[in-house]
Amino acid sequence: MMDMPGGNEDAAVDMKSIVQKRLEEMGAKFCREIEMGVFPAVTMKSRSTDNIFYSPKHRQYILGDRTVTRSSRNIAHLRPFTQMVWTAFFVHELLRQRKTSTLRDVYYSAQAYDIFFKDQSESDNIITDLETAIEHPRESFNVFPEERSAVFGDLTIQYTVPGYEDRRMNLSSHPDGVMIGPALTDARFIETSADKVIVIEKGAMFTRFVEERVYERFNAILIYTAGQAPRSTRYFIRRLNRELGLPVYIFSDADPWGMHIAMVIISGSANAAHLRQLTTPDAKWAGVWASDIIDYKLPSEKLNERDLKRLKELRVDPRYEDSHWQEQIDIFMKIKKKCELEAFSRYGLTHIVDKYLPERLKEIGA
Amino acid sequence: MAILYGQITTNKPVTAISSTGNSRIVEYRLMIDIEKNRPIVLDRRIHANLRSRSRRWRGTVVEIHLRGSYPQAMPKVLEYLKQTAIVNPYANIMFVDPRGRLYKFDRTVDRMPPPPREINPHPHGVDVETIQRIIRSTAERDMLGFMRRHFHRVGEKTARDFLRRAGIPEDRDPKSLRPDEIVSLVEKMREYDGFLPPEADCLSPLGEDLLRAGVLKELEPEFVAVHQRRPSAYSGHPFIVEVAIAYGGKVPAKDDVLLYRFANKIPLVYDESGDVCWRIVRSINWRRYNVSPSMPFAVIIHVCSTKIPYKTLGKEILADQPEVSREIINGIREVARQLARYISRKERVKRQVRRLTVFSRYLPKIARFSAELAGREKPPDTNRLYQRRQVFSDFVTQNEYVDSEVFDSRLYNVVFVHIRNKHEENAAVVRVLGRVGSRWEVLIPESSLTSGSEIYETLRGRYEAVKVQAKSLRPNMESLIDAYVDGISE
What we know:
The complex is a heterodimer. Chain A has helices at residues 12-36, 75-96, 103-109, 120-134, 182-185, 203-211, 214-217, 231-244, 256-267, 290-295, 305-316, 323-335, 351-363, and strands at 41-45, 52-55, 60-63, 67-71, 101-102, 143-144, 150-152, 155-158, 168-170, 178-179, 188-192, 196-200, 220-224, 248-251, 284-287, 301-302, 337-338. Chain A is 43% helix and 17% strand. In chain A, helix 1 (12-36) crosses helix 2 (75-96), helix 2 packs across helix 4 (120-134) and helix 11 packs antiparallel against helix 12 (323-335). In chain A, the strands form 6 sheets. Chain A has a 6-stranded mixed sheet with strand order 10-7-13-12-14-15. Chain B is an alpha+beta fold. Chain B is built from 9 helices and 21 strands. In chain B, the strands form 5 sheets. In chain B, strands 7, 8, 9, 10, 11 and 12 form a 6-stranded mixed sheet that branches. In chain B, strands 14, 15, 17, 18 and 20 form a 5-stranded antiparallel sheet that branches. Chain B is elongated and about 110 Å long. Chain B starts with a helix and ends with a strand. Chains A and B meet through helix 1 and helix 2 of A and helix 9 of B.
């Protein structure tokens, strides 16, 4: 794992030049090996499940010490190895030309170079290999997913993407919010009056929060994750937390799935155990808690088999070790009920903003 | 049988003309007295074999007329001739059918198996009738002489011991034996275990080389394995089983195993399913040998004996004579094992070739993109890692060895050689040499490469250079060779 030099570890622009350099070094190493008659190989950490461990220190999943070597000497490795070298070349071109691409785009681009992927999942997998090998997330080499999420609030950013260099924008300038895409992920943060970040899982609630001027009333930057937060959004949240020192509060549905949306923002997923810059360990799950279903008398539904099974899994998940999480899981199991963020609408559309939000923020010390 | 059939359908005599290459040619015209089972000689002529000694005619001509439904019989007739050609690869067979079409089965070898030696019957194999016949004609005055003179593998010591054990005085006149004593003699002979087993030089098997030649010529397989079992005997009758298996090439794929049966070089074309050979072939678990019955392969079984254990009077199917069946099974197993080895080897070659194709496909790409990453203008030379060279390309073999291009193997730890004979018919002989200093050593010794077959070998050891040599297997029968040498650095 690489740690960024200096205090500003998430500085996007610096990181890109480091990634670019690592890719070039990899290419140079392969060239040297070929000339010496040695089959090029890369050694990277194994991503198999028996090498994924939870690290209480990092508060996320990390890879253990076991490594795998992918060698061009091995016929079974040769094709994925070639695909990875091409992918390295391709993203290096992206970085050099300051362009971005999507996972799907990468999959199609390969064909122009006579490199073939069976399907997109094969190319996605190779990109994950490359992330593991150079120990940086794909966002740092300009490959983004096509998922969309949004941000709204008083934050002035300055673009770094070609054609927009030095142009500034305030993220409260559009009422639908601003899409968190590559340009925003890599933008510099200039200034903000906000003192917190509120993350919301549901689109309808995000819109309500904007309409009810939560950003003003609570001095908050609002983020809409559209369900499970995409990696670029998780990265963006982390930057807000790290670079601007803003505390992060997450609101999701009161069920095991909503709970886990918050957890992935906080502690990451096992799938991304090879990466370190996607988590925000200090973020807090602010609701909706199982206890809220009782305390606020929220309309609820019964937990189904799948929900209960998932809860049992989460109960033993090391990320849920903390007593507050365990408590909430116990309550879920006891009441066997779940509810959505929208459930507050039973008491009027603004109830959630007028009553629940201030009470909760106060309760958790915000 | 054929003469009899001709006579009862057309009532015409048979004409036989023959000469052993001496000064006379004998011609007979005969009919059979069916009731007495005796020949009726209608005409007998002696012709002078006029030409000079070395150019005299020799051979036998038999001419019969018969009536039958040719359209119905045609497939069997042609099949019979084709199968006859399999077990007589040294014979030219020509057949003009009633429609005037000419069928030719040309010989591919000019050697014949050694002629069989005439022997006396083995005491285990005689019956009362035979003994009576011998007694009628013998000149021997006592039993000791009788036993020694008229039976196979009976010497003085054995004869004495047998007569003593049988309780027959040595000086007894054989002609004085009463019928019941003859029956008892036959029984005693069967029971006595001191007779040596019969020798097989009275048999005329084809031998492995001729059987292979016959199968190659008529079935044109991609692969053939032949095996001759050691001579054995049942009830005093010596026999030899010869088995071949032919795979691929022009061997047709049927739903079931293709079986060719022969008894003393005569094809057995009828009633296949009643034959013990059929039962044995069906009972074999072919999957153990990497083949399934639906693959294109044929099993050829030749039983050679002084008495073929026929099941019926029609002489078309073999009975289950345990001693013979055992030899047939073991013979099939042997050739099936060879086939299994051939098929697994062929699959290995295929895998290896694919393996190396993968190298040549991907390594240049790795070099190219690595160079682009490193900002280099030219990609590094992947030949140090892996190189494939075609050292023979559509090479037409000659009568003497010709060298291929020389492959410089100094950079590589492992070298593979792959040689293919692309010719449709002719076989080639190839070998592979490696150079140490100024000396060429043979790495793969002379091997014959039949039409369509391949050699794939990993060369061990350190050589500075490697080359292939090829020539035609038979003079002026050129074949077509492709050869590749691959070197890998690690």
